[in-house]
Amino acid sequence: MKKLYFDTSTDVMYIVLAFNNKIVEINKYLGKRDHATFLVHRIDQILKKNNVTLGDISEIIVGEGPGSYTGIRVSATVAKTLCYAKNISLYAVSSLVFLTSGYKGKIIALHDARRSHVFACIYDHDQVLMKSQYMSIDDVKNQSNFEHTLPVYVHENHDSIDIEIIDAHKYKIKDLHRFEPNYARITEAETNAS
């Protein structure tokens, strides 16, 4: 079984190719609001390099956010398009879990959402203790599940991906056309308009 994983919720684009639940290659790219330019090209490169076609892929697992509004839209659009065109099963997973999956134990995954807020979730292996959400840093500290957790901050130097953890948290998208990323908050433009 061949699977393709990708996430563009942060400045770092991750593309992971796995055969029979073993990582064959991780392609990482540090960008600045340009994932739309490079995601499809890099997917094509990693597939060609490993003598794989899209027709060989049985599952695409995409990071659904929260994170960069534009970034998660890019991933969702590319994933939906590839799955629709090639009849591939689409799965989604929290980008927070995706990007911190290589750490062991009870994890609180944190991604800076600016203005003293973070995107956060708490999980322990395959168990979700707090779903991905937007919250103030003070509210994170007051979570009852916060005790005895390993705080893992999503950042550009992060390199630890574990597809076993990602697969444990993924869920199948039954209707490609209705799949929407997890924005977890309204956009800055929407906030300013209200």
What does this structure look like?
The chain has one domain (2-102, 158-193): Nucleotidyltransferase, domain 5 (2-Layer Sandwich), CATH 3.30.420. It is 29% helix and 34% strand. It is built from 6 helices and 10 strands, in the order βββαβαβαβββαβαβα. Helix 1 packs across helix 2 (69-86).
Helix content: 25-40%
Mean pLDDT across residues: 91
The CATH superfamily bears the name: ATPase, nucleotide binding domain
CATH fold descriptor: Nucleotidyltransferase, domain 5
Q: What is the CATH-assigned architecture?
A: 2-Layer Sandwich
Question: Pairing-aware structural class of the strands and helices?
Answer: alpha/beta
Give the total of beta strands. Answer: 10
Large-scale geometry: globular
Instruction: Tell me the distance between the termini.
Output: 48 Å
Number of helices: 6
Compressed to H and E, one letter per element, the order equals: EEEHEHEHEEEHEHEH
The number of domains: 1
Major sheet: order of its strands?
3-2-1-4-5-10
Biggest sheet details: 6 strands, mixed
- The CATH C-level class name: Alpha Beta
- Say what oligomer this is: single chain
Strand content: 25-35%
